[in-house]
Structures are given as structure tokens and as C-alpha cells.
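ENTRY TYPE: paired fold submission
RECORD: A
CONTENT: sequence, then C-alpha cells
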Amino acid sequence: MRAGKLRHVVELQRSATAIDSHGDAIATWSTIATVRACVWPLSGREFIAAQTQQAELTARIEIRARPDLALTPKDRVKWGTRLFDIRHIVDLGGRGVEWQLLVTERIQ
């Protein structure tokens, strides 16, 4: 992978459950790694859900593989103020060098 195409900095985040002062479980997100990436917007669409109009943007994010992370579709990517849910993780070339994350950003 050429380093020149990794011009963005993204945070890989994982959800954890915490207990608030009332004893209720709340979901929190913590950054597990900050990496260089290439972000490619792919498509966008609008749809009606629960009687409200919503938009969905899909993108492809390429990063160097991180075998120490065990990244899963339950994790997410933060790029600036934008949040992306990971849908698929593809090992490009099958050599464990480069990952392609197919992600969805929800805009409401």
C-alpha cells in the first residue's frame, strides 16, 4: 500500500457498556486506534423510515491491516465529526496487509 494515498486520519472506535449513577446501562464509544486512511465516498440515497425522511451515505475506507485489533462490524469509524458504521471488512489481496472497510454514514 502506498503511503501517499493515506491522507486522512480516522479513529477506530469500539462500543462498551457502562453503568450510570442510576444503575442503568448506557452504551459508550472509546477510540481503540487512530490510523491513516483513504476515504472514498461511494453512493448516497434517501429513504423514508418511521415516517421521517433519512439519508444514507456509503463509503469505502482503506487502512493498513491491524491484526492486533480484531476489528468487527460492531465497531465504527470516526472521521472528524462524521461517524460511519462498519458493514464489511475485506482483506485486500488476502495477505493481511490492507483492509477495505465498507461503511455507512447515517445523516439525520
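RECORD: B
CONTENT: sequence, then C-alpha cells
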Amino acid sequence: MKNQVQLITYVDRLTGGGLAALRELLRGPLRGLFGGVHLLPFFVPIDGADAGFDPIDHAAVDARLGTWEDVRSLTLDIDVMADLIVNHMSRDSAQFSDYLARAGASAHDGLFLTRERVFPNGVSPSDLQAIYRPRPGTPFTAITLGDGSVRFFWTTFTPHQIDIDVQHPTGSAYLRHILATFGANGIRMVRLDAVGYAIKKAGTSCFMLPETFDFIAALAAEARARGIEVLVEIHSYYRKQIEIARHVDRVYDFALPPLLLHAFEFGTGRYLADWIEIRPHNAITVLDTHDGIGIIDIGPDRAEPLARPGLVPATELDELVERIHHNTAGESRRATGAAASNLDLYQVNCTFYDAMSRNDLRYLLARAVQFFLPGVPQVYYVGLLAGSNDLTLLARSGVGRDINRHCYTEAEVESALARPVVRELCRLIRLRNEHPAFGGAFARLDSSETAVHLRWTAGLASAELQVDFASGAYTLAVSSPAGLEQFEFTLD
């Protein structure tokens, strides 16, 4: 994985077109900005019940976007990451349809996880209470098969997404087939989507078990054998994230976005500085993704909230959520929790730019901190364009996360790229990609209660950032052949 900023995007929502249009955008207005691109699900279909994360055919490119040949063409210009949706597939998939019709006679018998396979002696109320799930209710859906029998299938996320039995030979073969398809078409990075939920075991939380680590290790070995690097996507208590990072290639730093929001809202660098000291360095850093802003990632362990507190005081975490809602004039409240379908209990749905009250300087300073921390930075397409909440799309779909999934036209992209805040963000991205200091050694220097002070050095090359979250003052200085230069944002 290149040590350069990456783009996260839906193909059609950034370009208004397909893979060929995305390639032209990356070759044209966005030329040189990104070392890699994470293509959010481009499989059949891109517009299912969960915006592509419920594939009917995980090994086929949706024809509305192009073909595998178009994907291969894109990989000639830039490293491409794709999602390996580990935990589930669409209820409308050919495999599940065949199993519904033929039951035990189906070649796909064993591919889908049932309640009885995990709880052969029945599930008790305490078993149900122990299961960790990101959404309310039980994780089972009763479905009648063609022979008239009823099965209770695991549906961790929605009734449209049927969980795979990844420990069954047919489940393993299914995942290997997808990896082989990716490898043959130039994909060099995969994100293991929802992998924390993949292994279920009676009497446990069914989330990030010791057996899950074993499964991830085996799947990662399969990927590496095909020249594919692996990123693990887990939202969880921060100490669990640190533990997970010891066992995998890459993890997301999901604690960073809410910590930066907290730093600016409360005028303190204390908790961010504490996290910088202990956070994993094999991280993908983000401020925004296609999902919401994680809250669980800096909150207490839900199993032991008093014994295992979060990165910020619980009262301040609650206040932070309220401040985000205030900053957006209530827009984020309309898209979060019980106010919207397809909800996540641990996320606030909102663009990061709106969460920061559309304050251009604060937004750029947040990006600067992101880019200065060890790891590979990713920038979401809406964040790249400093996008605002899409209330029209939210109203049309009723899906909370759609507030941060705007569908841009070519004219909108052109207009956004001309805005000063976006222009300066692009300048900052180029600095992060090109300055040699970021290939060297990182240090967090002593700073005050309200500020952080970060430095990179590689030989004579250096890059240094100081941000005071209370006053908004900052210094960004980088070495050059002419000496030390101040990098200042111009927002006129």
C-alpha cells in the first residue's frame, strides 16, 4: 500500500457515470491527488437494500458501471481497493434462491447460517442478550423454504442480508472465489466488511471472538497468496481496536474523527494526545466514510462501562453528540438512530464538514492532523468536496446514512473543486503525498492542554504541525531547498 492519500468513493455518486468516467476524473481534475482508490461496492446490484453491501452477485460488476475490463484499466493508473463482504449476501442471490427452492438438495446447502447451527439445543434469553449487534432486535429472520419447512436464518444487519456460514466448506469456497476474481482483475487491497460478526458461537457475544482472529488470519493468508493486502473494518471499544491491530495488516482509526470533533468543540487536545500515544500505527486514518461518525470508538466498553471507560468522559461524549446535532441545525438528528431506517446504534449520520459547522479553517486543520498521524490517510468523496448534508436524498430514501452519500453531477464536482476550502484541501493532500518527511520518523512533541504538536523527519527533511484547538491558531512548517517554509491556508 502506497504511503499516499487514498480516495474512498462510490463510482457513480462521484462521477454521475461509471468506471470509465471515474478513470477520466482521476486522470484529469484529480490527477496526482491519490495513490489509491477504495471503490465502494460496484457489484450486482449497486442499489440494493444496503447500497451495494447486499450483493446478489459479488463476483460481477454492475453493468451500469462497466465491466471487469474497466476495473483492470483503472488499476493501470492507481491502486484499487474493493470490499470483500464477508458476513452476508443478498436474500435475492441465486445461491439463496436455489437453497430456498431445494433445501437440502441444493448445492448451496450449508452456505447460509441458521440459528440452529449455532444453538442446536435452542437459544435462551441470556444467549440473546449476550449477542452483540449493531442494530436493535434479534439477529434472526424466519423464512419458509420450498418444502414448507421454516428456518431461522442469521441476519445480523437486515432481513435482506443473509449471513454466510464462513466455517462451512461452501462458505469458504464462496469467499475464495471472490478473492480469486479480485486477484485476476488487478485488485491489490481488500476491506473485510463486517468481519467482526463472521464467527458465531453459543454463549458468547458472537463478535470478535478468538476464533474470529483465526478466521481473519486464514482469510488474509488466502488474500496475500494472490498479492492482495487486507484492511479490517471494525467499530468497537478502543482497547479492542488496539488488540485487533496486533493481528492484522491494517485497521481503521475510527477513534480519530470523534476525537477531533471533541477537541475543537471542547477546546482541548488532551484526549487526542492521549490517543496518539497508544493508537496503532498500522492504521488507515479517516475523518469520514460511507457510514456515520463512530461514537462507540471513543466511548466506554458497553459490557463494562464503569470498569472500562472511553477515551473521553461519558458526559462529554453525550454532549458532543448534541453539539453535532446543534452544528447541523438538527439535520444529523433527523438521520441518526431511531429517526431513520437502516440505523446504526453507534454512529451519528452527518457529513464531517457539517459536523464542524462548515468552518473551513477548522475543517482543514482536522485534515492536517489526520494527514500528520502515522498511517495511510483516506478521504471520502463527499469530504474531498467539503460536501453538505443531502436532505433531499435522505427524504427520498429514508436511510440515515444517505445524508452523507450525495450523488454529484459533473457540474457540481467542477464547482466544488473551485471552492477555496476544497482547493486548499487538495494542496494539503499533495503536500502529504510528495514531501519526503512523511516517509521518515514520527514524534508527538510536548504541547499545552489545548494543543497538539506533531513532527515528521527524514534526514534533513522535516514537516511540523501545531494546532491549538481552543484558539484555532496553527503552524504548519515544512523543509524545502530554500529552508523552512510556512504552509498557510488561503481561504479568500
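NOTES ON RECORD B: Residues 252 and 284 are 5 Å apart (CA to CA). The chain has a mean pLDDT of 94.
STATUS: closed
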